[in-house]
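User: Quick sanity check before I run a bigger batch. Here is a single chain. Can you write out its predicted 3D structure?
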Amino acid sequence: MRITVTSVLVDDQDKALRFYTEVLGFVPKNDVPVGEYRWLTVVSPDDPDGVELLLEPDQHPAAKPFKAALVADGIPITSFAVADVAAEVARLKALGVTFTQETTDMGPVTLAVLDDTCGNLIQIAAM
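Assistant: Done. Predicted structure follows.
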């Protein structure tokens, strides 16, 4: 068994696609109309056949309160690996990204938390 797709709930798929590709650097993988929304996935340019991130609409009644509660408590919805957290934070800040937690050394892992502009906090981490 292996993970092939994981989701992040987004408030606007077009805005999410721009942020996750133009800012974070992922590349589009699938963009298939599914009724009112799309099966819209992105992947790492370093692993185009790897795990897909589904930019899933947050239209379920539980989604927005769930996301808001996580943000209010400062809890990231997911984590992305980077080689150098400080360098990535500097790159992303230059692109206007807001961080809710600055680069933090936690012993075996260094991390930071950013706002994805789509209603989520995302952790970036290096081990």
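The helical segments are 13-23, 63-72, 85-94.

User: Great, the batch can go ahead then.
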